[in-house]
Amino acid sequence: MSKTRHVVAAVEEVPPGSRKRLSLEGREIALFNLAGEFFALGDKCPHESGSLCAGKIIGLAAADEPGKYRLERDGEFVKCPWHGWEFDIRTGQSWCDPALTRVRVYEAHVEQGETLVKGPFVADTYPVSLEHNYIVIEV
Ligand code: FES
Fold it and tell me: How many domains does the chain have?
């Protein structure tokens, strides 16, 4: 089954470190900007359906020995606001149970307005202009 491409926002609307909640084809999606890279996750925690878009953005605490902690991958994980399960924004995998628990990941990337206006893609959810860049999600 082919996927549908949706133009969901101008790049400037979702600055680095921010997120945006979307509804596409009946699916709730959380779009995140990690330092200029865009990632789209299903906005439904696999535990009890909490909204990941409303979660706190965090990093990982790592330690090589007791009492010596450091922060890694700061800003690349989201913590579910309901019970605190943590997910890798890049992959949708649960940090505690990566083999069995994950949230759905959708393809998200940036395209120039000029490309989108020419087609064959349809900007069905967002008006585009030639001079801007836009975030496109495939569902
Ligand atoms: S609903 Fe997300 S941790 Fe419980």
Answer: 1
